[in-house]
Amino acid sequence: MEQKMRKRKIYIAGPMTGIARWNRPAFVKAxxxxxxxxxxxxxxxxxxxxxxxxxxIVTTPGLLDAVIDEELAQLATCDAIYLLTGWENxxxxxxxxxxxxxxxxxxxxxxxxxxxxTPKAALEVALMDPIMVNPKMNVKVEK
Length: 143
Prior knowledge:
This protein is of the alpha/beta class. It has helices spanning 24-36, 44-49, 54-59, 63-75, 91-102, 119-128, and strands at residues 9-13, 40-42, 80-83, 106-109, 115-116. The chain has a five-stranded mixed β-sheet, sandwiched between helices.
C-alpha cells in the first residue's frame, strides 16, 4: 500500500497592526509564492477572514482575542514559519516566532529565503543580521 506524503505546513508571520488593510497584499503575495513551492500555507489574513471583516474583528468585544487564539493554534500545527519583511517591528510576529522556535520549526525569512533548521541558528540570524536587528528586542544570544 502506497503512503501519500503529507504537505509541509508553513505559517506566515509579519507586521499587520498600523498598516493599511493589515498588510494584506504582502501576506497574499507570500501565500501565493509559498503555495507555488508546494507548501500548505496558514496565513493570519486568511484565518481572520473566517471571522469577518477587519472592522468587525476590532470592534466586536472578544473577537480579536478569538482570532489570535485561532492563529496561534494554526501556527502550532506547522512545520515552518515564514517571516515577512518588517516582522521584527511586530509584537505579534515576534510572539509567533518564539512559539515556532519553542516547537523546533524551520524559520524562513522573506529577505534571505534561507531555511534555518535549528532554533539557535534561526535566532542568531534573526538577531545578528544587520538588516533584521531590532535593538528594542534586547535579546542576548549565548554562543
